[in-house]
Specification:
Length: 161
């Protein structure tokens, strides 16, 4: 019988970006992260309570795509995420979800982002699990802004409080 691994907390998420500066600025201004460090133009570490995010600058010439030495046999980081023109390619369903207390909160967030020139990929909609909208941040990360405050009764017991 396989032994269960010990409980662990999510340490960080790492995202490739073809515009690291714009991605970092978005995460700072709209998502409440602060910059912990920037390593030249290769990566940035962003922090907020309980969560770290690493934004990795990638392009067709990025050091993240180059082997560290001649003995390296694994593929370079993010190589499969870079298009021929150096743009980041994301799997179509990949996204991160941010939860807000109320539908009014996500309306305010969407309006604030729109007033700063960011166009959401969807309007606000409710799929029985609560209201949400999707927006692609600079660098290509798809973000879901959602609330569960208006989820259908059948789903209310399925969420952590």
């Amino acid at each position: 019988m396989t032994q269960q691994i010990p409980a662990a907390k999510l340490n960080h998420m790492s995202f490739p970006s073809d515009d690291m500066g714009a991605t970092v600025a978005f995460f700072e201004k709209y998502l409440g992260f602060s910059v912990s460090m920037i390593a030249r133009d290769t990566y940035a570490i962003l922090k907020r309570p309980g969560m770290d995010v690493v934004i990795e600058h990638v392009s067709t010439t990025s050091s993240a795509l180059q082997p560290r030495d001649e003995s390296e046999t694994r593929p370079p980081a993010f190589a499969e995420n870079i298009g021929q023109k150096g743009e980041v390619k994301w799997p179509s369903a990949f996204h991160i979800g941010l939860e807000f207390a109320t539908r009014e909160d996500i309306v305010r967030v969407k309006d604030s982002l729109a007033s700063d020139g960011f166009a959401a990929e969807t309007g606000i909609f409710n799929n029985d699990r609560g209201s949400r909208f999707f927006l692609r941040a600079p660098g290509g990360v798809l973000i879901e802004f959602n609330t569960r405050s208006d989820a259908s009764e059948a789903y209310r017991g399925t969420f952590d409080s």
